[in-house]
Amino acid sequence: MTTTLNILPLSDWFPGLNQPLLIAGPCSAECEEQVVETAHGIAKIGKIQILRLGIWKPRSRPGTFEGAGDEALQWLKRVKTETGLLTAVEVATAVHVEKAVAAGIDVLWVGARTTSNPFSVEQIAQALLGINIPVLVKNPVNPDLELWIGALERFNRAGIVKLAAVHRGFYPYERSRLRNIPKWELAIDLKSKFPNLPIICDPSHIAGNASLVPEIAQKALNLSMDGLMIEVHRNPFLAFSDAKQQISPLQLEIMLNELVFRSTSSQNVEFIDKLEQLRDKIDSIDQQMIELLAQRMRIVEEIGEYKKNNNVSVFQLRRWENILKSRIDCGKRLGLDDEYIKDLLQLVHKESIRKQADILNRKDKLSAE
Ligand code: PEP
Ligand code: MN
After folding, report:
1. Which of 50, 64, 137, 205 to mutate to test the pocket of ligand 1 (most atoms within 8 A of CB)?
2. One domain for residues 93 and 201
3. 352 is in which domain, residue-wise?
4. I want to staple 331 with a disulfide (CB 3.0 to 4.6 A). Which of 36, 137, 161, 336 is the partner?
5. What is the pTM of this model?
């Protein structure tokens, strides 16, 4: 199903909004001092325009800290007047929407667990009818692009045009280096389907560890994401939630100075010429790769016929192991990563097996008739 989203460009959300959009703030509101001190630390850097803050925290398990609740809305009013920062909070119910809007919150975001549930999304969207406020939609916990798009569509249908997606990675059951697997390809697919939809990366929830946040943030910028949402706490070690992944305002400042903010294009003629030449080369190599794959497949088919005529099975373990090993060795000599070659060959091999199995089945049916 293809649809379009009616989106207002980020630059028109608030006067003077910079891009990429930089959002930072604590995972959760703990007490007034923590909120105010963190906000001042962030505002002082001079690059952040929106303060994020979880007031009502949807924690995985009960009995853990669930945010300061309604009271924190008053702290945000103070922060706004003292720092000039815009404010963003997470909403998970219609009541949250009502309270946040009444308290003058500037931006709302919908968390990963909420995006996963279309009933909740619909209720929040209904509560937003007639309200002109930006809404950021985090990806669902599981890598389901349709669910993510569905949530964006529900808000858009409720009249929200200041709409953006937030890429925060996907839950891995197995232990992994990162807390959530980025699966960048999903964010890229979303961008190709809706080129005018801003996508903001949340490197903190992807990384799960403060030391990995800059690396993920840089990767997001390299992929031309439209902004970053970063968890920042005045004293990360003492944070009541997500302590491992939060960074201090000073660490944020250092990171922002070190990140390379690339533009998506350049007007420099020399650059454009050079890029064009290199892209021509890539186009030509891709063309050759596809022709070679087609040639390879013709031989695979020939082998399929041959196996059939000699009553030999399609899959030959020894041969496959040899292929894998020799190609990985060859790739290594040429500076290519083992895993990359392995993935590529598995893809090629899978299709070869499918083709040969087709040949065998087709012939079987004919001879049975
Ligand atoms: C958060 O932003 O603090 C949060 C709860 O994130 P997520 O919904 O991505 O888990
Ligand atoms: Mn968090």
Report:
1. 205
2. yes
3. 269-368
4. 336
5. 0.79
